[in-house]
Fold:
Amino acid sequence: MRKPSIHIPVPKLPRRNGVILLVLVISSSFFLILINYFTIKTLSAVRAYTSGESRYSKGQKDAARYLIMYINTGDSLYWQSFEEELRVPIGDSISRAALSHGSSDDELIKQGFLEGRNHTDDLDDMIWLFRNFHTISFMRNAIRIWKNADVTIGEEYNLAHYIRQHIRDGTLTEELKTINIKKINEITTTLTKRERAFSDTLGAASRKINTYLFLFNIVMTVLVIGGSSMYSNVMIKRLRNNNQELLHTNQELDKFVYSASHDLRSPITSVKGLIEVARYEKNIEQIKHYLTLMNKSLDKQDQFIRDIIDFSKNKRDHILLEEINLNSLIDKAVAFNQHHNHDGKPVAVKKEIRVNNIIGDVLRYRIILNNLISNAIRYRDPEKESYLSVKTYSSRDSLMIEVSDNGIGIKDDDLNRIFEMFYVIGNNRGSGLGLYVTRQTVLKLRGTIKAESKIGIGSTFKVSIPLYYATIM
Structure:
C-alpha cells in the first residue's frame, strides 16, 4: 500500500541568497589566492633583485680590490681577476639597458642576469617585475639608482683601461698610482652609497607589500569565514524544515560545510603566520623557504586555481622567423623616437626601400632599427636642417640596412670604440650600451655592422645580414 505524500512547507527565504553567499565565498577565495600568488611572485622577484644587488656590490668591490693589486704589482693575473669580477655588474647592466629600451629578447636579458650571477630560477620573475612595475615609484626609483651606478661602473671600466695602458707603457709613476688608487676608492664609495640606496628602496617596498598583504588577508578572511558561516546558516535552516528523509542529506551537508570552512580557513591562517614570521626574518634563504610554504598552503585550496597560477616559462626559440615589413618597422621606430627631438625642429626622414618584405626575427630587427634611428635623431646638429636617411637593399647574399644622418658626427678616435660596452663619447650621459646591444643583436643574426663618420658632416651605419636570416619575399 502506497504511503501518502506529506508536504512540508519550505521557509520563504529567497533561494538566490544562498547563491549570492556561495558566489561571495568562491570569489573571495579566488581573489585571495590570486592576490597572494602575485604578491608572493612580486616578493620573490624583489628578493631576487636584493640578492642580485649584493652580488653586484661584491663583484664591484672585488674588482676594485684586484685592480688596486694590479696597480701595485703589474701582475696580469690580477687584471684577469678584475675583468672576471667586473663582468658581474656589467652583466646586470646589459639586462637593465635591454629591459629599459623595451627589448623583447629574453635570451639576451637572461644571459646578462646570468653574467651577474643571479640564480636561473629567478630570471623569469626578475624580468616580469621589471616589465610590469618599471613605472611604479619604488621600481622606478630603484632603476634610476641602478642606472646611475652603471654609469659609475663604466667610469671604473674606462679608468682601469687607462691604468693598464700606463702599466704596459711603463709610465705609471708612484704619483699616478696614488691618484688612481684614490679614484678607485672614491668610485667604490659612490657605488656603495648607490647600492645601499637600491637595497633600501626595494626593502621598503617589500615591507609595504607585506603590510598590504596582511591587511588584505584579514579582509578576505572575514569575507570567506563570514560568507561561509552565513551560507551554512541558510542551508541548515532550509534543511531543518525538511522531513526525516532529508536528515541524512542534512548531516552530510553539515559535515561538508564544516570541512569546507576548515579547508578555507586553515591555509589562510598558515599564510598569515608565515607572513608574520617572514616579516622579521633577515635570512634570504629562510624567507624563500617561507614563501615556498605559503605557496603550498594556498595550493591546497583549489586545484583549478592552482592550474591557473601554474608557473610557466615563456622561452622563445633562438631565432624566431616571421614575415616582416621593413618600411612599417622604420616608420614605427621614427615615431617611437620622436621624443628625442627636444628642440622641436623637424627631422626630415628620407627612405629608399628597395627591399621591404622579408622573413626574419622581427624583435631583433626592431632593436637594430630603434637604436640606429634613435642615435640619428638624438645626436643631430642643431645648427642644420636635420635629416636622417634609411636605405634597404640586397647585396650578393645579404640584406643591407643603412642609416645615415647629417648630425654632429663622431671623432676618428671614438669611431673605433663606439661598439664597446660602456663607451661614452664626450659629455654624453647615456648608458653606453645602445650600440653595444645593437652589435650583439646583429651578431645573433650572423651579420656585421660598420660605422662611418666625420665631425660636422654626419654618420652612416651599415648593417649586413645573411639572407638565410633575412629571406627576401
